[in-house]
């Protein structure tokens, strides 16, 4: 009996531990990358208001988007499914949504920065749960889309109203 537990249990335990370590490392690396990219884009103002203030000095305005498909590992998905049994806050799903939202916004800001924009107005977010669309169980995966209007102002013009 003990031989069977050792032959089957140890490899399974090793795979679980290996998955937890690698999954945690990948998540922390992604968060560090997001922090660094957000710092480089911090000079771009982001606002969820529909109307641009001081539209008379807007030189260009273009729609920009940031899209990401992000997934968590099976271990966090398993923990979330256990949480569904007893109720309560699903922190793994919350972390996934937060990371996905940040990544989509960073990609939107990178696109705005590439066109020389200093502001993005009317920023909105949308998402879909890809796992449920397929009807299969497994790792949670989401598609998030951020969109807004990137604004390039005339040179020398400053915005009178704070957009933040």
Would you summarize the structure shown here?
The chain has helices spanning about 1-40, 75-85, 90-115, 130-135; strands spanning about 45, 60-70, 120-130, 140-155.
Run of helices and strands: HEEHHEHE
Q: How do the strands of the widest beta sheet line up side by side?
A: 1-3-4-2
Structural class: alpha+beta
Distance between the termini: 65 Å
Work out the radius of gyration: 21 Å
- Look at the structure and give the mean pLDDT: 84
Shape descriptor: elongated
Q: Please indicate the percent range of residues in DSSP E strands (runs of 2 or more).
A: 15-25%
Q: How can the largest sheet be summarized?
A: 4 strands, mixed
Unreliable stretches (pLDDT < 50, length at least 5) are 160-164
State the oligomer: single chain
Supply the number of helical segments: 4
Q: Helix share of residues?
A: 40-55%
* Beta strands, count: 4
Tell me what the structure shows:
The protein is an alpha+beta fold. It has helices at residues 2-40, 74-86, 91-114, 130-134, and strands spanning 45-46, 58-71, 119-129, 141-153. Strands 1-3-4-2 form a 4-stranded mixed β-sheet. The longest helix is centred in the first third of the chain and has 39 residues, at 2-40. The radius of gyration is 21 Å and the shape is elongated. The model is unreliable at 160-164 (pLDDT under 50).
What are the salient characteristics of this protein?
164 residues, single chain, elongated, four-stranded mixed sheet
